[in-house]
Amino acid sequence: MKTLKQLLRLYEGGGIFTAIDTETTGLMNKTDKIIEIGAVKFCKDGVIDKFSTLINPQMPIPYASTKVNGITNQMVCDCPTFFEIHHDFLDFIKDTVLVAHNANFDIGFINAELSRINKGELKKPNVPAVDTLKNSRKIYTEFTKFNLQFLANEFNISVENAHRALDDARVCMELFQHNLAYLKNNI
Hints:
This protein is of the alpha/beta class. The chain has helices spanning 4-12, 63-69, 73-76, 82-93, 103-116, 132-139, 148-154, 165-185; strands at 17-24, 34-43, 46-54, 97-100, 130-131. The protein is built from 8 helices and 5 strands. Helix 5 links the parallel strand 4 (97-100) and strand 5. Helix 1 (4-12) crosses helix 8.
C-alpha cells in the first residue's frame, strides 16, 4: 500500500483515482449481496466520470438494510444483476487507484460477488484500495469518531444522500482530497 506521501505525489502528478461505495443487503459478504454500486473517477483537475447502478441481489432485502439506505425490493426487482454489470464496473475502474471509506468492506463485497460468478477478484494495482477511514484515523488523532458522515460534517463536505452509493463515493473522494490537502499543508 502506498504511503500518504506517495499518494500525494501520485495525485499531484496526474494520477487517476476512483472512489467507490457499495450498499448491501447486510454486513456479511459471504451471505449478503450488493444492491448498489457508486463510483466517481477523478484526478487533481476534477471529476472525470461517474458510475452508478442499483443491482438486483436475487434475494430479499432485509428491512434493516432498507432502513439504512432506503433501497427497497421494489426498487431493484427490474434492475440488472451483478453478473450483468460487472464488465461495465471493471472497465470503469480499470487503470485507476481505488479509494473507499472502510475499503475492506466494499472490496470484500465486490470480491465475493466476483467469486460467485467465477470471475477473478480485484488485485493490484487496484487493491488494496486507499482507505480513507484508516488514513483519517492516522491524521486526525483528536477525533473519536470516523464514520463518513461525521468526517464530512467536520470538514464541511456536503452530504446530499447519505448511505446511497454514488453520494457516499463522492463524499469519500472529497474526504480523500481533504486528507491530501491537510498532509500537503502539514509536511
